[in-house]
Input
Amino acid sequence: MEQLKFDTIILGGGPAGLSAAIYAARGAVSTAIIDINMLGGQPSNYLELENYPGFQIVGGYDLMEKFEEHADKFGVQKFPMQEIENVDLKNKIIKTKEYEFIAKTIIIATGAQPMKLNVAGEKEFVGRGVSYCAVCDGAFYKNKVVAVVGGGNAAVEEAMYLTKFADKVYVIHRRDELRADKIVQERAFKNEKLEFIWDTVVKEIKGDALVTNVVLENVKTKEITNLPVNGVFPYIGMSPNAELFSGQLQQDARGFIITDETMSTSIEGVFAVGDVRTTPLRQVVTAAADGAVGAVYAVKYLETAKEAEIAG
Output
């Protein structure tokens, strides 16, 4: 197994990771970025972004391509599609199928993934009517009926996107009002293809070869109903991609990594940025900002360590 050494290794190639890579490389430290997928992260699957400063509307893939090109300018070494076998944060060693990486600092930018409903039928019908990416799979539901589960920005925005294909889109929300931004709500309520089902949760997803209906329960009346649909898109929140680090550093009850304002974790020389950490807002702009802060303090950590070595 080939051994590679870097001053800073960034785990994750989404907006937080790419931003960190740019700032670390500009700090004149050898920088590598490792991802289990292609670089770009979740925004690469977004059809459009309209809240990234400087761009009234920009394609998610296009924006992440710009991030990657910027990182290339500063000589960041990229290792996409790596199967990570083990991460030793204390000793700063990362093992993949192909390489053993040794770092002086690590920046965790592994992001988060959509939470599951954890109901009967969900796992069985993934790819056969259950999807967590409207942009990826929306076109399969042309002239069909689908349900989106959730009430935040992601749920409502993806529901509106699905109306480009589906004849009818139900938005199922466990509360009696949405959590999405007001401007997003206003657009949704004007969309004639959207219908909102309030105070309701999904109890089961049913079908044969494909999804045919969902079993719903009204949380107030406890009434059980069946809703015929061809697809189900859960958007109920995010869970951190932090399994590789569990038990090694401080995390909150949901598994998100706890950091201070410098993005430092409970392990010296290890930083966490973006959606994987505890943060009040998970957006592309905040992920990019986290990456900048984390990388600047990783560079400072390296400089302090070097000064101490010289003085010692």
About this structure: The chain has a mean pLDDT of 96. The domain at 116-234 is CATH 3.50.50.60 (FAD/NAD(P)-binding domain). Residues 143 and 166 are 5 Å apart (CA to CA). DSSP finds six helices and 16 strands in the chain.
